[in-house]
User: Fold these one by one.
Assistant:
Number 1:
Amino acid sequence: MMKKTTYLTALLLLTLTGLLAQNNVYPSAGNTGLGTTSPTAKLDAQLSANLPVESGIRLTSPFSFSSTSSIQTLFHLRKTGRSKGEFFSQFVVKPNGNVGVGVNWNDPILNNKRMVITDNNPNALDLNVRGFALIDGQNASLLFGATGGEAFGQWGIEYNEYATVKGLNFWKPTGSNNFGNYYMFLTDTGKVSIGLDPNVAGTYNGNFKLYVADGIMTEKVKVTLRSSSDWSDYVFEDDYKLLPLEEVEAHIAKNGHLPNVPSAEEVAKEGIDLAKMDAKLLEKIEELTLYVIEQQKQIKELQEQLKTK
């Protein structure tokens, strides 16, 4: 039984070796085929679904190879230049595993950058991704602006999913000017904050879209109203009830502010709506105009009475 098993095993190995040999061609000139007898490239490797292979083409380097070997590249795709002996790297894999596309094989940048894609032309597009591109993982970031040699560049954009408020964080990495987080933050609910920590309670109080620390300076602000009825022209309607000045005086004495105007405490706590506040101020100006008109009528009437005496 042992001899029969050994014989069958040997026969199987010979058969498999023969099949593989029949599917390979190694001509002295022309194309070389692995797994095919009709190669259409200088090296044409084709896999068979019937053979239990783990990889198509594999290159294995020994342990500590990158620190002890004098080999400069594991894989190097290049094109010739116009001068004799001139070559330009197109794709290179260094012994330390770093990969370069469009960068020369001996560029020092490949010593400490896992992947470099460039053609050294500032006016050319180095990378074009069509379709979705996912940057995933804890603290995964897009980094920008390492022209000064900063390890992580000058700006970063990351999805902050482990904080109290989740969203997109625009931050300054270590080694950049003014390192820090939350220069701008876009929450998952569409709210935007500038210069505020989104994890501090109360940062996003109110149903607003933009929250800014330290103020805003602008040359122009335009505020619209939801309806024309929100403006203050109703003061001039015939049925508008204008408070007597005595009641206005009593209200000021009691509350310390004009009627229907928020107090200092309310403004400090809730802030003000610019459109509503402008309308309220105009309301008071229009009321004041009505008081002046009424007083002018009284003055004129008194003058007429004085003339008759």
Number 2:
Amino acid sequence: MNKKSTLQKKPIGVFDSGMGGISVLKNLVSILPQENFIFYGDSANAPYGVKTVEEVKNLSRKNVKHLLNEGAKMIVVACNTATSAAINDLRKENPDVPFIGLEPAVKPAVEHKPNSKVGVMATPLTLKQKKFKELKSKYSNEATIEPIPAPNLVEFVEKGDVNSKELKTYLSNLLSDYTNVDSIVLGCTHFPFAINAIRKVMGEDVFIIDGGPGAAREARNILEQNDLLNPQNERGWIKFENSTGEYEKIDLSHKLFKMNLE
């Protein structure tokens, strides 16, 4: 096996502050079924969205180092908070590694309905970052962009709670001031797991979108451009890891991966 072929067969490393990035992993596997994946959930340190920028940067560096030590050929930062806080530094520190990040899917929400009101649900840290402020400013003439901080939703998903009465009460209280939005952008990779509960609160007429599919398409494009696509015909493997070392977290990872998000 030559050097190029060996590199192509290496896994794609995907990390998140916890379980949320599994929603992105589902998108990646859907359009890159022949690729091998390692998913690393840093549940021991979740949630990232209430930490300082420096804390998130240091945790992200640690996650990247772990995945590169396992032979990852590409890193997907499947966390909006880590992308906002750390991806520029990660790219500078690892110039030979392709990185894919996540950002709120504001553009497709704006394009869905001109001159509309777009609510962006995300962690407080994501909404405070320069990346989001630039995104908001970019589309300010085309839509009203309304930040919706959702600091506790991550913790529901981390427990595997995507449909309880408590979750619906939390969402009802959180979203009660935003009933007039036309679209909801899920600006955290945990949030797609709660999409059905969010839809019940907001109603069927509200357009809901997340950034996972766009990130997966970008990953495929970068792999193609760098001749890194795995040439094998059979389906690739997926390895789940978690910083807690708990079997329960791995078991929940598998359950969330199998969950239908439609």
